Amino acid sequence: MSDGYTVAVVGAGLVGEKIVFELRRRDFPLKELRVLARTARTTTLAGEEFEVGVAEPEAFEGVDFAFFAGTEGEKGAAVQLAQEAISRGAVVIDNGSDFRLDPDVPLVVPEVNADALEGHNGLIANANCSTITMLLPLAPLIRAFGVRRVIVSTYQAVSGSGREGVEALEDGREGVYPRPIAGNAIPLIGGVGDDGYTTEERKMRLESRKILGLPDLEVFATTVRIPVHTGHSESVYVETEREASLDEVVEALRSAPGVTFSGDADDFPTPLEAAGDSGTFVGRVRVEGNAISFWCVADNLLKGAATNAVQIAESLIGVRV
Ligand SMILES: NC(=O)c1ccc[n+]([C@@H]2O[C@H](COP(=O)([O-])OP(=O)(O)OC[C@H]3O[C@@H](n4cnc5c(N)ncnc54)[C@H](OP(=O)(O)O)[C@@H]3O)[C@@H](O)[C@H]2O)c1
Q1: Whose CA is nearest to atom 2 of ligand 1?
Q2: End-to-end CA distance of the chain, in Å?
Q3: What is the pTM of this model?
Q4: 5-126+304-317 to CATH, choices 3.40.50.12780, 3.40.50.11690, 3.40.50.720, 3.40.50.300
Q5: What are the tens digits of pLDDT across the range 211-254?
Q6: Residue 129 a catalytic site member
């Protein structure tokens, strides 16, 4: 399309702002950029002033791509409005979890399974931020060496809970987390199921299975909220089918798309350095027989949300990923 695409961003929160930022930074071919939320107002996002419109069915007239970054659930933006946007001709890319496991909806991390976009029905789901961060380095290792099981512990930033999470850390806002977050580490993200796993932990298991096309993949996750503003970190242990040497693992990680790998033990990535960068950073790699351990970090609002969403749209229009 020579004169660009009409794009709507639904949600003017932390992720919505980063989608605007990424569309501009990556020079996405835009004809028009609309921002929609619950209430109309003038607001500044990523240094640009917008007349925010109300997210309602008519607001999607003429829209080619609609990025949803509102709330989840029955009354959430995507459940209420995604089909309205699709029926008006838009392709919807949803950051929430409502449709991720729907068999008719591709769940996509472009570096890992861009082929899943083929034959989509107008709705594409962006994966969970912790899942994306883990899969960038993990997928090439699994493809190279096979997999028996994955054990992961996360260290997740408060901006992963949107504006409320940041207010809980910076202003002591109550009711966001089950315990105070300042000076703490809270090993409970989401509700706990009968099996003892939280919703966040289940997302990491079920979304990884779908994205990798490995329906029996064992992923044992423990997800933890820590008092970091932005940047999710993860300690990942993967038991492989075949033994890999350290050199082979390093080679697989060095050539992994979207991964910046550091082989120097002193040069480990941290959330403070990863925040603001759209990449995924890996370090502290150890290999012992069939066991590979590594540390990975990504900005949860960028590669964990906005960057991945914009890359999906780029894949669809055939520009760079
Ligand atoms: N934060 C992360 O790291 C992250 C990562 C991956 C995915 N996600 C997902 O991305 C979505 C947005 O997260 P966030 O962190 O940006 O949240 P946020 O900072 O709390 O912002 C939410 C925004 O969505 C708007 N909104 C809520 N319900 C809406 C509705 N029914 N219709 C239209 N707009 C609505 C709000 O509008 P008003 O401003 O008018 O109230 C607000 O601007 C969530 O589904 C979240 O799970 C977040």
Answers
A1: 160
A2: 18
A3: 0.97
A4: 3.40.50.720
A5: 999 999 999 999 999 999 999 999 999 999 999 999 999 999 99
A6: yes
